[in-house]
Amino acid sequence: MNLPAAFDAIGTELPSLDPAIADAVRARWDAKTKPLGALGDLEALAVQLAQIQGRSTPTIAEAQILVFAGDHGAARDGVSAYPQDVTWQMVMNFLAGGAAISVLARELGCGLSVVDAGVNHDFAAAPGLLDLKIAPGTASYLHQRAMSIDQCRQAIVAGHALAQRLSADCLLLGEMGIGNTASAALLMHHLSRVPLAECVGPGTGLDPAGVARKLALLEQASQRHALRGTDAGALTLLAAFGGFEIAMLVGCIISAVQARKVVVVDGFIVGAAVLVAQRLAPGIEAHLVFAHQSAEPAHHRMLGEIGARPLLQLGLRLGEGSGAALALPLLRLSLSLLANMATFDSAQVSQAS
Amino acid sequence: MNLPAAFDAIGTELPSLDPAIADAVRARWDAKTKPLGALGDLEALAVQLAQIQGRSTPTIAEAQILVFAGDHGAARDGVSAYPQDVTWQMVMNFLAGGAAISVLARELGCGLSVVDAGVNHDFAAAPGLLDLKIAPGTASYLHQRAMSIDQCRQAIVAGHALAQRLSADCLLLGEMGIGNTASAALLMHHLSRVPLAECVGPGTGLDPAGVARKLALLEQASQRHALRGTDAGALTLLAAFGGFEIAMLVGCIISAVQARKVVVVDGFIVGAAVLVAQRLAPGIEAHLVFAHQSAEPAHHRMLGEIGARPLLQLGLRLGEGSGAALALPLLRLSLSLLANMATFDSAQVSQAS
């Protein structure tokens, strides 16, 4: 495969979000037996889902959870509270059904696929595991680029192709990768110009001293690559700071939006992929559902930079797509309310005077 | 029935919330394959549900929605955007399956019962309708007490008895009654001493002029009853301002808590019933799950007065128990995660260093 050509073929045009469809759904809501706007964010959600799907009767037939997993060279330099081995161990746990996202997938009746974007482990083939490994983990951005530009493009192309061949009309996007809040913080800093100290947080659970050490390391990484204040493109930044799972998410997000799938964005790391995707496809945030605001302190600010309003605020900081999964009932229920509530006419209920 | 005696027999002692059970559940969470505390509010929720049920393996076997409906004399004096007839029309809509709460009940697999606490309409017997009517609507507090003290006690006793005979271990409590945000605002003002203007809002959808008119009417009502600044008890206030559905909710809440049922509180009106219940049974808020913060502006302040932290913030202002129903998936999923996630040991995942 000619990678640069494949990358250029992706295209970054987005489908239209038809205001007439929004108006039609609002009119449907307003005829329902409830005060105008009384279902609040659920009404806006169904309007958005309709625009995404390009029809005034939105539905979710099949929701699929995708967890993109990758390892980070910098994890061995002390940016995380956990050893790098936890990435592959958690992948095994996802597949064995014991992780939070595995439990949620069963309860919600969703498929769960784990995408090996670049885990530092040789997995045997297993149901639910998709081998799209670019390399066994990135290099450490403390010493060199996390990946080459070609690897970065390859990962984006792989994520793009993956979303195209999935039958599900709703994708819940999550990730696993020890050290990946550090990559997300670096990307956020360089893409948004928010000071690095405000992008760095405890991740899986660093104590304040650990956060200070992480910040010092990331400051060092940022200086090493000397991309701050330059007009470095999104690919350059992504290649510098990683990771493979984030790059693959970028491609998957763009492709799924192009295919008018409902894309539910999980937390801080998937949010960093959205920041990258916005550079490649400006305006893409309007096509995405943002599941939640996490406990990672910078996530609130990141959502503001993206221009996103999250559905839930539950103090989660797990990743895996768990927040996206927890938001799925709200999507399903909003669509069922829109489809199944009676109208004032049909129920013979008086309207406001 | 000797009503005062029946009322006195209710008792307002609450079950203990055992800290050892909380510790046991926290230990169960901490052994699960996730960073400590990473499931955020869902972890605290399962801890609370365990304490409510008095066992470290909490479950919800059967969730039941109860919508308490009542009419308010003051509705005919202009405190609502909707005519009083909408109360009984919406009860019919609940029973026919067309209302938001009907759709949610079906989707969530919950029973739905509508309690006629005092609707101004003669209903034919119907499946799902419980006739506990105290009277066909309250009197208008603009002219007299909304109800007598005996009616108030009767309503509380009826709500108390109802919760005792339900088999469900989880009750989702909602209400319907044109004009009942006005009663809730009056109760909030007198029970919390928050200025009346900060307790009054648009309810089902008054415009600013309508809110100003509502405030003027409620100020008039408050002056008429001259209970402000007195040590009037909760029953005196409830009798003065109504309504029957709120009084019945008070009894139901206390009884369900005493029976260690999981009680999910909906919005502003059920919140007013909680404020009353707190006077009768101090500390009851720790036994209750608060589903959401609604769009009614005073609800945020009310939750603060109660000492409650809501699960959802979706800008809802529908009532009917809709917010409680929308929170149910979070309760169920938190309990399933606690029951079914693997531990670090069982999944052979490394822990933080």
Task: Please identify the top-level CATH class of the largest domain in chain A.
Answer: Alpha Beta
Largest interface: A-B, 59 and 59 residues
- The CATH topology of the largest domain in chain A: Rossmann fold
The CATH architecture classification of the largest domain in chain A is 3-Layer(aba) Sandwich
Q: Roughly what percent helix of chain A?
A: 40-55%
Structural class of chain A: alpha/beta
What is the helix/strand order of chain A? HHHEHHEEHEHHHHEHEHHH
Strand order of the largest sheet of chain A: 3-2-1-4-5-6
Keywords for this structure?
alpha/beta, Rossmann fold, six-stranded parallel sheet
What's the layout of helices and strands?
The structure is a homodimer of 353-residue chains.
Chain A: H1 3-10, H2 19-31, H3 41-53, E1 63-70, H4 85-96, H5 100-108, E2 111-118, E3 129-131, H6 149-165, E4 170-176, H7 180-192, H8 208-225, H9 234-241, H10 244-258, E5 262-265, H11 268-280, E6 288-290, H12 297-306, H13 322-340, H14 344-347
Parallel strand pairs in A: 1-2, 1-4, 2-3, 4-5, 5-6
Helix pairs in contact in A: 1-6, 2-3, 3-13, 5-13, 6-9, 6-10, 7-9, 7-11, 10-11, 11-12
